[in-house]
Design a protein that fits this description.
The protein is an alpha/beta fold. It is built from 26 helices and ten strands.
Length: 580
């Protein structure tokens, strides 16, 4: 280990690590959640069984901690920088062993005459600590993300909740319940006496974070966000640094709290933020593979050459994280009344279209534009671009990220960013003819995107009520010629009615010309009817496009499916255009 790291390393049995009376463990709030899963639990379990069979010890790995002194008569705290996964898992296992001992009847016990003492020993030695004032603390306190579930397990309960902590408890509970009491006691003995850990105690955050980045964590790989955090904190705690470490840590922790409940991939937020930021401007794509290296480059070099400080950069990340979550949830409150409803409706449409990569541009748009009208115009342009891009099956890789990163780096320098956005998106968008061809040749499955397209066609091209708003989630996709026309007895009349065979019908069934909208009640009544009977339902539909089918077509055939497909495809470029 590098000589400039201020550390002390000691290899101990689990018994010694957990039973020292002068300190207790705490998982800092900035740490990632408990992340082990079945492969890691199974490894630990098998390693424990191996020690029982072989009689040997087993080295579990290292735990990196920072000692935090507290007030007189209180226990010092060891903050766990690395190793929380194995220590928490061991603690859960001890909780479950304790509960199995506690629930055993005296008739089951043949170990000694005082079975309750084993329960007390586990609690007093490994699960709880008492300070000089006789205050009782959990030996390990987790971050807010996991602590409630862990406390339930510590209190002898198996919570009916989701999460890796609860899953771990359920996994080991099954294992333990398969064993006899003597086997469980042997398991406990080897867990605390045959398993060893190296505890690496650091006197400063700088030493801990430098060390953390050099260690290979057993089990779940560290994410880019974990590594970014530790690199940032390492920089912030250097003796020569003028950064306010406590403020940076607070901003980072709050950012993670903001995004964690919503985002399965928190790295996506950081990628989108970095590409959207005004300073330092990034005009190229930042992929998930590049995220850590790019962030380190920003912290180490790029920010120093810009007009923003690291402190302000991290503060701004924290500041915009709630906005990003609101964009993801289509639940912004930047404005009020009708304008806000329109904005969130646009965001819902973007989500339906799969506008993940576009959040780079959306984030910058909301940050820069003070006018609701400008944001609405920008959202309309982005919606048209995404629709055209998706319907023509363009690639959705780094090319799209680069488009949006470049837009964020250029258009907001102009007096009219929305005009520049229009020009740039229109120039990169698939053409009208490409859109028409795609709609004529694509299949349209029964999903949210198809409901959105049909609803948009209804609102923009069929209804005369300009105030009418359709929520795509509330409508049903109606196949005019049923999907199972050749596959279900109840549709047997369609086999005789249609002018094609089964194989030919497959190529027409999901064409957009064979689709329309019905509400759920009407769909349930109409689905068994041949076309002449369906028309009676269609005539009373609340949707103008469906009434149009009833009024414009005497029969339903492959020719009419093609004819209507062409009509709808010709309408699309005028609906998803750039005239805002």
């Amino acid at each position: 280990m590098s000589s400039n790291l201020d550390i002390q390393a000691t290899e101990d049995r689990i018994h010694s690590v957990l039973s020292r009376s002068e300190y207790r463990f705490k998982i800092p709030e900035y740490q990632r959640q408990y992340a082990w899963e079945e492969p890691q639990w199974e490894d630990l379990w098998n390693d424990l069984l191996d020690t029982i069979q072989s009689g040997d010890t087993h080295f579990l790995g290292s735990v990196v901690v920072i000692k935090k002194e507290t007030k007189l008569n209180q226990l010092d705290v060891l903050q766990i920088v690395d190793g929380q996964q194995r220590l928490v898992t061991i603690s859960i296992l001890l909780c479950l062993i304790r509960e199995r001992f506690r629930q055993a009847s005296k008739e089951e016990w043949e170990l000694d005459s005082d079975p309750e003492r084993r329960v007390e020993r586990i609690e007093e030695k490994y699960l709880y600590k008492e300070d000089e004032r006789m205050n009782i603390y959990p030996n390990i306190t987790l971050s807010n993300f996991d602590n409630n579930e862990y406390q339930d397990i510590l209190n002898g309960q198996l919570p009916d909740k989701d999460g890796k902590i609860v899953e771990a408890a359920k996994y080991f509970s099954v294992k333990i319940n398969e064993l006899e009491l003597k086997e469980i006691e042997e398991l406990r003995t080897h867990l605390v006496n045959s398993m060893t850990i190296v505890t690496i105690e650091c006197n400063s955050e700088e030493s801990a974070f430098k060390l953390f980045e050099t260690l290979n964590d057993r089990g779940k790989d560290l994410t880019a966000v974990d590594l970014m955090k530790n690199h940032l904190f390492s920089v912030a705690t250097q003796p020569s640094s003028s950064l306010d470490y406590e403020q940076i840590k607070a901003d980072w922790e709050e950012t993670i709290r903001n995004i964690k409940p919503t985002l399965n991939k928190p790295g996506r937020f950081f990628r989108h933020y970095m590409m959207s930021a005004e300073e330092p401007a990034i005009s190229e794509a930042v992929s998930s593979y590049m995220l850590y290296d790019k962030f380190c480059g920003l912290i180490d070099h790029d920010i120093h050459n810009s007009d923003i400080s690291i402190q302000n950069y991290i503060s701004d990340i924290n500041h915009v994280s709630p906005l990003y979550v609101d964009i993801v949830n289509a639940d912004t409150d930047e404005f009020s009344g009708r304008a806000n409803r329109i904005i969130n409706r646009y965001l819902e449409h973007l989500n339906t279209l799969g506008a993940t990569q576009e959040r780079t541009l959306l984030l910058r748009l909301f940050k820069e534009m003070d006018s609701a009208n400008d944001i609405i115009r920008g959202l309309g342009l982005i919606e048209s671009f995404i629709f055209r891009w998706r319907v023509t099956n363009q690639t959705t890789g780094t090319d799209v990220d680069e488009i949006h990163a470049n837009l964020c780096s250029t258009i907001f320098e102009y007096d009219d960013p929305i005009a520049e956005l229009k020009e740039k998106l229109e120039s990169k968008s698939p053409s009208d003819s490409e859109v028409k061809i795609a709609i004529r040749t694509n299949d349209f499955p029964r999903n949210g995107r198809t409901r959105y397209i049909l609803s948009k066609l209804e609102m923009e091209s069929y209804t005369t009520d300009n105030s009418k708003v359709i929520d795509p989630a509330t409508v049903e996709i109606e196949h005019i010629a049923p999907r199972k026309a050749f596959g279900a007895n109840k549709y047997s009349s369609w086999v005789e009615y249609l002018d094609c065979g089964k194989e030919t019908f497959k190529s027409y069934c999901n064409q957009i010309g064979n689709l329309t909208l019905l509400n759920e009640r009407m769909n349930a009544r109409a689905q068994d009817d041949p076309f002449t009977q369906k028309k009676r339902e269609y005539e009373g539909s609340e949707f103008a496009m469906t009434r149009d089918v009833a009024s414009q077509y005497e029969n339903w055939s492959t020719d009419n499916i093609e004819k209507r497909t062409k009509i709808l495809s010709n309408k699309a470029p005028f609906i998803w255009d750039f005239d805002v």
